[in-house]
Amino acid sequence: MAWAAAAAGKGDIYLAISADGGRTFGQPVRVNANAGEARINGEIAPRVTLMPRRGSPPVITVTWNAKDAGTQIKTARSVDGGRTFAAPIALQSGIPGERGWPSSVVTANGKLHTIWLDHRGLVAEPAGAKPAATGEHDGVAMAQKSGLYYSADGGPERELFKGVCYCCKTAMAAGPNGELYAAWRHVFAGNMRDMGFTMSRDGGKTFTPMMRVNEDGWSIRGCPDDGPAMAVDAKGTVHLAWPTVQNEQGVIFYATSKSGAAFSTPVRMPTLGGPKPSHPQIAIDGSGAVFVAWDESRSGVRRAAIKAVAGNDPPQELGDATSYPVMSAADTGLVAAWTSGPPDRSVIAVRRIR
Q: Would you tell me which of 90, 188, 254, 258 could form a disulfide with 192, CB atoms 3.0–4.6 Å apart?
């Protein structure tokens, strides 16, 4: 498990290991080499990936957003079971501009693939600039100055698409045959904030043209700070969950794609009844069952919850004053983790869910 922690305006990235399916965790280890460099935000969480090795601990790679020398995406790798990390690698070097909201995945050949949102095109934009024709902020035009960027194993970065929504997390996953899938919130005509999707069948050398997952009909002059989550099962089916608004009510949609083809009609996930369920995550357990987790506010209190996609069981609450849940498959069922408590005294809570 990887997380960020801050004190006195300085943030760091930590990692702890469980070797017993989430029952216990070892002592945290700081991942970032430059103390206090981490940029911390709920949608800019560090990402941890594992590459299994026969007879040895898995290779652990952590990716995070750093404020060192501007804002950068950094990765660091451990080959000794998380006890130590090699010197971090920056995926950009001295390029001005804000960037973050990364997602990473490791394919079977051990290669790390990373995407992120990059706003270097806004560096020369005057503060408060507005198109002269309308006198109003044009989200579509401004979004063209921001892009989805990609890097393989810390190699040369490249822009995949322009027009991304400014500050929603991205999602990346790998298929059983090495396919790469990426999803993000895109700004379409009319300030529609729908999900964009692309895939690569050649290890990241090329990506397909952007697919619009669904026309949700949500137009907003600003970024909702709330992005998608994605997982791929053993048969190659892509499972995608994302937050949106329908009839002025926040909802979480779930849809599937067969190996990157057009997505199914979205299904609205049952939630706790709050006005805006947010920050979805998705995971698939050992049996192939798909689960979605999220947080939402009820009676002024933030609560995290989890729900199996199939079946009529109601959502299971994870507790009061909880937010930003994440999940991972374990030996039996899932392990869920989330942030609990007020910001200045927050803790990471963990529960095994069968």
A: 188
- What's the token pair of residue 139? 């989200």
Work out the burial of residue 192: count CB atoms within 10 Å of its CB; fewer than 13 is exposed, 13-18 middle, 19 or more buried.
Answer: middle
Compute the distance between CA of residue 174 and CA of residue 236 in angstroms, rounded to an integer. 9
Tell me the pLDDT tens digit for each residue of 19-46: 998 999 999 999 999 999 999 888 999 9
pTM of the model: 0.94
Q: Are 174 and 194 in contact (CB under 8 A)?
A: no
Q: Residue ranges of the alpha helices (H) in 120-225? A: 139-143
Sheet strand arrangement including 72-78 = 47-53, 56-66, 72-78, 89-90
Using the structure block, give the residue that is written with the tokens 């053993």.
Answer: 234
Which residue has 């990716």 as its token pair? 63
Positive/negative CA dihedral, 96, 229, 79, 235: negative
In the block, residue with structure tokens 């408590």: 341
Element (H, E) at 106: strand 99-106
Spell out the alpha helix ranges (H) of the chain.
139-143
- pLDDT tens-digit profile of 102-150? 999 999 999 999 999 999 999 865 555 444 434 345 788 999 999 999 9
pLDDT tens, residue by residue, 245-287: 999 999 999 999 999 999 999 999 999 999 999 999 999 998 9
Q: Which amino acid is at 348?
A: I
Q: Are strands 322-329 and 316-320 parallel, antiparallel or unpaired?
A: unpaired
Q: Which of 287, 184, 276 is nearest to 229 (CA)?
A: 184
DSSP 274-289: -S--EEEEEEE-TTS-
- The angle subtended at Cα 43 by Cα 39 and Cα 47, nearest 5°, is 75
Given the structure tokens 């949500």, which residue do they identify?
Answer: 218
